[in-house]
């Protein structure tokens, strides 16, 4: 690939990492999408990014679907990465306009999030006292469900971020945005037991793995899978399932969409509204099962 074009890609990825503070996994996803774009630019012998036409981009996106069999979700993410890249180049004066603005990607059917019901959540989080890992896992589960944390957030928090007197936790989420979230009484009690057990200092990770290091996202996933088995919850349990369950249960009880949005740290309330659809789906099932004029005739 031509060096000027490669240099633009490298600078954009550094911008995402250092200025926008995107996570390493997100930067990697952008890099993969731009690598495909770079290969295409090289095959077309382009000298500058401004030589790339919107029709070429649309054809390239179509080929990702027809030849590489990429899913609609992947194609939409690829198009988004290209739009962000050319938007950056436009601000830098490297292109006159963004050729990816009008890209059409296939519509993606939005899946409703999975959740555990309240009884399943109680069964999962109430890990009986036992060894040190049981105390740690109880605190981990209680906190994630109580505050609706992302796995990256729970791995990053430290004891200094926890205000036990007011039941609040300072969390750094996507884009290095900080928010304050409530922590429930059950989670506070589990965290108190954890701190007493581990004799943690303010700068220590809230949830530690081996040798006192922060528990990694993969470590969290492994602990959740194990605890689901030992607690008899026979569903696929993963970190975002606890976040989904927290949001759904809060919205079902309060109906306060804005409050749930603030808790989860969603920039767009449209993201939070998916839980409204989930609540309506639950209502429809209850209605179909219970209303005398809605019941289906059983054969």
Quick recap:
With 299 residues, the protein is mainly α.
Name of the CATH superfamily of the largest domain = Intergrase catalytic core
Biggest β-sheet: count, sense, barrel? Answer: 3 strands, antiparallel
User: How would you classify the helix and strand content by structural class?
Assistant: mainly alpha
What share of the residues lie within helices? 55-70%
**How many separate helices?**
13
The count of strands amounts to 3
Q: Looking at CATH, which topology of the largest domain would you report?
A: hpI Integrase, Chain A
Globally, the shape reads elongated
Termini separation comes to 67 Å
Radius of gyration: 23 Å
CATH level 1 class label of the largest domain: Mainly Alpha
- The total domain count is 2
The fraction of residues in strands falls at under 5%
The overall pLDDT, averaged over residues, is: 82
Unreliable residue stretches: none
Q: Which CATH-level-2 architecture of the largest domain?
A: Orthogonal Bundle
Strands side by side in the biggest sheet: 1-2-3
Order of helices and strands: HHHHHHHEEEHHHHHH
Structure description:
The chain has 299 residues and is mainly alpha-helical. 58% of the residues lie in helices and 4% in strands. The protein folds into 2 domains: 3-91, DNA polymerase, domain 1; 118-287, Intergrase catalytic core (hpI Integrase, Chain A, Orthogonal Bundle). The chain is built from 13 helices and 3 strands, in the order αααααααβββαααααα. A 3-stranded antiparallel β-sheet has the order 1-2-3. Helix 6 packs across helix 10 (239-254). The radius of gyration is 23 Å and the shape is elongated. It starts with a helix and ends in a 9-residue tail after the last helix.
């Amino acid at each position: 690939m031509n060096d000027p074009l490669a240099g633009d890609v490298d600078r954009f990825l550094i911008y995402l990492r250092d200025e926008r503070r995107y996570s390493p996994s997100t930067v990697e996803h952008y890099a993969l999408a731009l690598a495909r774009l770079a290969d295409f630019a090289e095959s077309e012998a382009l000298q500058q990014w401004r030589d790339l036409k919107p029709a070429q981009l649309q054809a390239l996106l179509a080929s990702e679907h027809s030849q590489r069999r990429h899913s609609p979700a992947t194609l939409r993410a690829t198009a988004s990465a290209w739009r962000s890249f050319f938007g950056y180049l436009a601000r830098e004066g490297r292109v006159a306009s963004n050729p990816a603005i009008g890209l059409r990607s296939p519509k993606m059917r939005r899946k409703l999030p999975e959740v555990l019901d309240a009884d399943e959540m109680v069964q999962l989080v109430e890990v009986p006292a036992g060894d040190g890992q049981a105390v740690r896992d109880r605190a981990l589960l209680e906190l994630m469900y109580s505050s609706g944390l992302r796995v990256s957030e729970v791995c990053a928090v430290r004891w200094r971020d926890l205000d036990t007197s007011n039941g609040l936790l300072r969390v750094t989420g996507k884009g290095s945005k900080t928010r304050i979230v409530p922590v429930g009484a059950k989670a506070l009690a589990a965290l108190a037991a954890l701190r007493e057990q581990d004799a943690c200092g303010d700068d220590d990770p809230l949830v530690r793995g081996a040798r006192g290091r922060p528990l990694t996202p993969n470590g969290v996933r492994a602990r959740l899978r194990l605890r689901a088995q030992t607690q008899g919850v026979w569903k696929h349990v993963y970190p975002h399932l606890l976040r989904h369950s927290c949001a759904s249960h809060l919205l079902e009880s309060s109906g306060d969409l804005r409050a749930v949005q603030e808790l989860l740290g969603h920039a767009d309330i449209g993201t939070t509204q998916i839980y409204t659809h989930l609540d309506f789906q639950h209502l429809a099932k209850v209605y179909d099962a219970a209303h005398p004029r809605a019941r289906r005739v059983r054969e």
